[in-house]
């Protein structure tokens, strides 16, 4: 849906503010396929007007005219506190192409910019661009990134940086916060319009249901429960799971101070502004559930269209109770597969939990451990398993590997087939912070080759890429402590 709510209380027609002398920083030919955009052999759009379009400097290309660029209003809970009205403070929705909304992030001030400058810096744009495309390649639902256009326009953050515009694509950028906004204003008509539009465009199965809004709520919960389980399984920390950053389609969105785990620490906090660790790795499932509870409050008036207040509350409470069940189911399925277990036994979950505890105690590299686990042979002796060297408590891990080998004996798949299947779920390449940082530093000196190389490597995260072994290494300790803030 190109945001279908009309009226100044829902969105404002907002033109991007041009940037001086725009240039390409990066472009995703894979994302371009979503909108059928013809590209030159150099991998950039054939029509040069696209550079100006994606910079926010024009609204017309040879094939497209975007006559109603807009910023939409939403509200939300930030760090657990009601923050009131927020909105697209630096994102401008140009319109829809082939079922994808095209949004420019960092394209200048809008009605909802509050104290902000409406801009995004090159550093944060590279992080969002690379991570969006990397998540997609990992098979995790996400908004996509089409391009980064740079400019030498200075932008003030902790220090002076330069501006960039990141073009994003998604079937819809509707957030939990959009529902919270109209619910907080007790505007049931707008809430209903929003829900009806979402159903018509993205949840058509709900349309024929005799309780469409109840079904819609359950579906949004289910998608986000599955999503957060997928995050846990690749060690992704979002960093700012405020309700305004949670998608109604169950997409990963609003990449800011995110981080992938290097060494496994269940309480890892990737956002250094998050002193209390509200959004720490191990809290993400609970926080997503909390966000779904915010959404439930916003859905109450919708359910009350057909039910008493008490019935509506009971229905939503019951639906919310499904969240931990859906989450646990997906988490268990994913971690079984990460261990190469295709059958299911009662003791599996305990086996997985004991492994994670041991990994945490010894701060073992999350990605590399699972990747290398596929090399184990069923009839190997525990002492031949090189991975045991990474653990401090050797007796405990030997005991664990002993049980794991016995468990593998009860699997039907042979070593080779199991290893191949494991390598399709345990990536070799993830966007580690130090890799992003290296690409950013080069890009800040106008060398974009490293950004392009990372995009290429991360688009095949499950493939062995022998020429890029270095990109799979655990970073030295000082490089894994790069601090990432909300400032972007
Ligand atoms: P975020 O923490 O990036 O999800 O942003 C929270 C809110 O602040 C959203 O409403 C953003 O649109 C807004 N915002 C963030 N950065 C800026 C900026 N530089 N200029 C204007 N608004 C911003
Ligand atoms: Mg946001």
Attribute tags:
binds adenosine monophosphate, 488 residues, six-stranded antiparallel beta sheet, 3 domains, two-stranded antiparallel sheet, single chain
Task: Please tell me about this protein's structure.
By secondary structure, the chain is α+β, with helices and mostly antiparallel strands. It folds into three domains: 11-170, no CATH class; 176-337; 343-422, no CATH class. The chain is built from 15 helices and twelve strands. The strands form four sheets. Strands 2, 6, 7, 8, 9 and 10 form a six-stranded antiparallel beta sheet that branches. Helix 5 (188-202) crosses helix 8, helix 8 (284-303) packs antiparallel against helix 9 (309-338) and helix 10 (348-362) packs antiparallel against helix 12. The longest helix has 30 residues, at 309-338. Bound molecules: adenosine monophosphate (AMP) and magnesium ion. Magnesium ion binds at residues 244-245, 254. Residues 244-245, 254 line the site of magnesium ion.
